[in-house]
Design goal:
Blueprint lengths: L19 H20 L23 H11 L1 H5 L5 H13 L4 H18 L6 H13 L4 H17 L14 H8 L3 H13 L3 H12 L12 H6 L1 E6 L2 E6 L2 H14 L17 H15 L8 H4 L11
Antiparallel strand pairs: 1-2
Helix pairs in contact: 4-5, 5-7, 6-7, 9-10, 9-13, 10-12
């Protein structure tokens, strides 16, 4: 068997599927030679084995990709179980990579600092996670707030490759859960019609969309004029692109809305400068309308809106 030297140039069938690799290398080398001769440019040809950037290596079946994946999965064993600024940065990076919205990332970034405060330089372990839960309860936080902090800590453990440290959340009584999630149909309609009376057609339409579709608030940016023409919205959840079909009754109102607002392209719900509606501003507007409508604003939230059971659709 003869070995080929760097100077050996062999035949490559340009019609073969896998010929893109050697053909691409030849084009790159030719361009380097041209620049060297025409512009007197110093050229060095390198042949890196593999290049990894922000792409997910977990789907790479080759040895190098699997080495990286295993290293990240067992981060706690390789680096230690102490929470460092580098690990927090990596945590936030992975939140972005997993398509978490900006508000979720901001909340997780705040919540993980509470865990760092509790540990006070000590290492993270399952025992410390249980102690952290008791510390949060003794600090006077409500069960829902405690669960929010624990959820962040559990997600951090998962990303750092130590899911065995995750602990269960605080149990919420069904009655408490039901009461906080319940908005009556009559109160819902009061909010909708009061928003219209207050000349806040955008708020009324956003509430309608959240209530009658599976769309999340952070996904409203994908509700565009182009999506209305297709009749569905494309969103990314858990690394997969899915289609959310818009009910005809909602689609009809949305088309009336964009015609009235003279929106011809882009996002349906946006600010005057064309950016996405901020979640906090939405809550402020919703709270104001609740007060005007005589509805308890403490029981009205984005999540509550999505759990309303209506006997009829309130047309705008």
């Amino acid at each position: 068997m003869k070995t080929a030297s760097e100077e050996t140039s062999r035949y490559v069938n340009a019609m073969e599927f896998r010929s893109c690799y050697p053909s691409g290398k030849r084009v790159a080398k030719t361009l380097c030679a041209v620049y060297e001769k025409q512009y007197n440019t110093d050229v060095v040809l390198a042949r890196p084995c593999h290049i990894y950037a922000s792409a997910d290596s977990s789907s790479d079946s080759r040895a190098a990709g699997q080495f990286i994946t295993k290293f990240l999965m067992r981060w706690s064993d390789v680096m230690s179980v102490y929470i460092t600024s580098e690990k927090i940065s990596y945590f936030i990076y992975m939140l972005n990579k997993r398509n978490k919205n900006a508000n979720t990332i901001a909340a997780y970034s705040r919540n993980i600092k509470k865990l760092v405060l509790f540990l006070d330089g000590s290492g993270l372990s399952k025992e410390q996670m249980y102690a952290y839960r008791e510390w949060l309860k003794k600090s006077g936080f409500k069960k829902r707030t405690v669960n929010a902090y624990l959820s962040t800590a559990n997600y951090f453990c998962e990303i750092m490759g130590c899911p065995e440290m995750k602990i269960e959340l605080e149990h919420l009584p069904y009655e408490e859960f039901q009461n906080t999630m319940q908005i009556s149909a009559s109160n819902y309609k009061k909010i909708i019609y009061m928003a219209l009376q207050d000349n806040n057609e955008r708020l009324a339409m956003m509430i309608q969309v959240l209530c009658h579709t599976d769309l999340r608030f952070c996904e409203l940016q994908f509700l565009t004029v182009e999506a209305l023409e297709k009749g569905y919205i494309e969103v990314i959840r858990k690394h997969e692109k899915i289609k959310l079909f818009i009910p005809d009754i909602v689609l009809k109102d949305l088309k009336k809305y964009i015609k009235h607002r003279k929106i011809i392209s882009g996002m349906v719900f946006c600010t005057r400068n064309g950016s996405m509606v901020n979640r906090s501003n939405f809550r402020k507007e919703l709270k104001k309308i609740c007060i005007l409508a005589g509805v308890d604003e403490t029981k009205v939230s984005i999540q509550n809106v999505k759990n309303v059971v209506l006997d009829s659709y309130p047309h705008l």
